[in-house]
Structure formats: C-alpha cells, structure tokens
Amino acid sequence: MSTGTALATDPHVVSCTLAPRFEAVRTAREFARTTLEGWGLGDLFDDVALVASELVTNALRHALGQHEPSRVPTQTAPQLAVGSLPIRISLVHRAPQVVCAVSDPSSSGPIAREADFVAESGRGLHLVDSFSRSWGWHPLAGAGKVVWALFDARIPEALVEPSVPNLGRHRRSA
Fold it and tell me: Residue 81: pLDDT band by 50, 70, 90 thresholds?
C-alpha cells in the first residue's frame, strides 16, 4: 500500500493513509478488498471500490490542486505543507452498514455537476450517489473535510439460519 494502514483498537474501524499520487486510487481499492473480505463482506467490494476510487480521485484532483489525472505525481510524492492533512480512507462496519470515508486537506465541499455524458470527467458524484445508499460530507475542525458514503451490509437471507423452519412461499395462481 502507498503509505500504511493503521488498525484502530476497534477492528471494525480501519484507516489507510494515502500518498498524494495517482497510485493512491489502486491502494484504496486494495485496502477496501482486504478489509471487506476480513469482515466477511466481500460481496460489497465492487460498489465500495468504485465509490472509494471516485472519492480518492476527487481528493487528488481537487484537494491537492491537480485537475487532470496526468498531472498528479506518479512516482515521488510531494511533501505536504506543515499542518496540512494527508488523504486518508477509512472503512467503518457497524452492522448492518458500512461507511467508506475519505478525508483530505481541502475545506471545499464536493459539488455534483450536471452530468455531461460526453465529458471525460464530472460524473463521479453521480456514481457515488448511484452505488451507495447515501453520501455526504462534513468539514473537519480546523481544516479539511471528510466525504462519506453509506452502504447496506445486511447478510443475505439465504445465509441466515432461520429460527423457524422455512416453509417457503406460496404463490397463488390466477
């Protein structure tokens, strides 16, 4: 991973600090895969990975002032100014939900633009809205913000052992 993973004392709250490089998007997806599989929630990976990718990309483009992916450093990470925050992805599992949160040094909130289906960018927050149950953002004390997305992490009924026998469903014919 780019810089390192920090496991809090609560195994259902984990974070990973990301280097300000374009590879951070891949690192965020790998972090999401490992974490979700560890929680037994691997089925959520596709949705969480897509949202995490969008949120980290937005942090790289907007919070660090790099508006084009090709202009984001790929090899050596620039030093962050003293007092500025790194980009960090956090996953929180509180049954029956998972929250994916990305914090960055910018205090400016994300703005969903009118979808332009021909443009190369600008649809990220629409994807976040489509693949998560809800999303939003909050300013952090002092500086920076956190953008979060909520996912439903209910265990499928087929995997839950019923307390009463499953008698099936009866479908009435016309």
Answer: very low
The dihedral built from the CA positions of residue 32, 37, 39 and 43, taken in this order, carries a sign that is positive
Question: Is the backbone peptide bond immediately before 96 cis, with ω within 30 degrees of 0?
Answer: yes
Q: Supply the angle between the helices 45-58 and 24-38 in degrees, to the nearest 10.
A: 150
Sequence-separated (6 or more) residues with CB below 8 Å from residue 150? 97, 98, 99, 132, 133, 134, 135
Reported pTM: 0.74
Is 109 strand, coil or helix?
coil
Helix, strand or coil, per DSSP, at residue 92: strand
Q: Could you tell me the two tokens for 142?
A: 């002092």
